[in-house]
Amino acid sequence: MGVSTPGPRVAAPAVVADVRYAARDLWSVPSLLSLARIPLAACFPLVVHEPWWALGVVALSGLTDLADGWWARHFHQTTPTGAVLDGLTDKIFVLVVALTLYATDKLAPIELVLLGVRDLGELLTGLVIVARSDARALHEEQRANWLGKATTALQMLAVLVALFGWSWRLHVAILTGAIGLATAVVYARRAL
Fold this sequence. Notes:
The protein is an all-alpha fold. It has two domains: about 25-105; about 110-190. It is built from nine helices and no strands. It has helices at about 30-35, 35-45, 50-75, 80-105, 110-115, 115-130, 135-140, 145-165, 170-190. Helix 5 (about 110-115) packs parallel to helix 9 (about 170-190). The N and C termini lie far apart (about 45 Å).
């Protein structure tokens, strides 16, 4: 009985996710809830000097973020367009809030950077994916894990602390940066 030798290994063709972005998905309830964060972001600089009003804008944004995901999953309306839109509007809102707090001296430069560690990590991961032309990773849905949710909760706590001028805001920013870094690493490992 002869010993068979394996033939040359041939790499399996890369599987590209069948992702379909559709403008009609912008009119779904989850997408409209996500899009509501844009005018809320525009309102934040107008109310930043009234902490309770500013907190209300942040809370309303958080509710739209919870509601869009719940609605999409509950009513089977998850779409690639909605997933991208949700993440994009989240980033826009957080960026406007953070820059407004910085511009009004409610956040120091180091606190601003610490609050954005996870988001900067996600941006770098996205740039690597685009540079590699990795279509699968680019279109694969990246769901938040408990670290991501913890980072978001700490970012919101940091906003609250900054709005009311409490003395322990640097401590919250450092904790947010540490958890945000861990989140960015986990997200990068998952995507790359």
